[in-house]
Amino acid sequence: MKHKSIHEPKAKLMSAAEVWDDSRQITGVLQQNLLKAEPMIRLQIPLSVFLSALDNFSRDELVILRERVEERLAA
Amino acid sequence: MEQELPATRLPGATYAVSDTGPLISVFQSDSFSLLTQIFGEIHLSTVCMAELTKHGWEDEVQANSGKLVILKLTSDEELLALSIAKEIARHPETNDPVVGNHLGESQAIVLALRSEYQDDLLLLDELAARAIAKQKGIKLSGFPGVLVLAVRGGLISANDLKIKLEKCREQGTHYGVTFIQQVYEKAKQGRRKK
Q1: How many domains are there within chain B?
Q2: What mean pLDDT do residues A44-73 have?
């Protein structure tokens, strides 16, 4: 079996308090990146602008929108 | 073994640029699949790859090559890395003044400074290098921070975290007994709050 060793065994490492900050930092980065993957539309715009924006929606986005509209109409 | 950076990444994916130390901890504790549940890919420099080979971890790198991308720095980046290695060697938090021993950390820092990684994370455990990376505005975490995140996200238990850190310590990584206990306690508290 190949001998395995570690790198810089005497190096000073982070404290336990920093570990907690690290995990919060990762959470923030992961959340930001996931949010960026969401399709974005702006609210508080004239209705005509919204309607013309529909022309640029993909099929998947239109299906999501239709489901939401049908839910609202059925309520 | 060097690979080209893929042209596109999956929407919402976060990549990690890793230094040698955290990856060794990942291999020591059989945590590579856990790491890839959090990060889309792990990228490392050729110097870090050489260090992994020197320390006997080449087989683990090969076994996980689908998610591990090895990147060569440009000559300008290598010069920058050398200057950062000198900064680390002079830093009050280091106990190793040999510049060449800090090239892995400094190359990881230089990779993380590339614009394509501005929304990604650097994995770095060593205190002096972390201080310098933070000064440069890089978002980073050590390997224990990844484990705490995994506990908070329900991927592993606090007990799993403790076992993994102890495995690293048993194999020579400098995570002290008190440090492991403190991280374990914090992870347990964080999990309970969810």
Answers
A1: 2
A2: 85
The rounded distance, in Å, linking the Cα atoms of A38 and B13 is 12
Strands B42-45 and B140-141, bridge-based pairing: unpaired
Same domain, B79 and B165: no
Task: Give the separation between CA B140 and CA B124, rounded to whole angstroms.
Answer: 7
Q: For residue B173, report the phi and psi dihedrals to the nearest 5 degrees.
A: -70, 140
- Where is B43: in which H helix or E strand? strand B42-45
CB distance from A3 to chain B under 8 Å? yes
> Between chains, do B20 and A12 touch, taking CB under 8 Å as contact?
no
Least confidently predicted of A31-45, A59-73, B85-99: A31-45
Domain ranges of chain A: 16-74
Is B123 in CB contact (< 8 Å) with chain A? no
Report whether pLDDT(B194) > 50: no
Check B144 against A37: CB less than 8 A apart.
no
- B7 in a structural domain: no
Mean pLDDT of B145-157: 94
Co-location of B122 and B41 in the same domain = yes
Yes or no, beta carbons of B125 and A12 under 8 Å apart: no
B126 within some domain: yes
Residues in B 22-81 with any Cβ partner in A closer than 8 A: 24, 28, 38, 51, 55-59
Domain that holds residue B93: 16-141
- Say whether B126 and A29 touch across the interface (CB within 8 A): no
Q: At B24, phi and psi to the nearest 5?
A: -60, -40
Two tokens at A13?
């490492």
Section B152-166 average pLDDT? 95
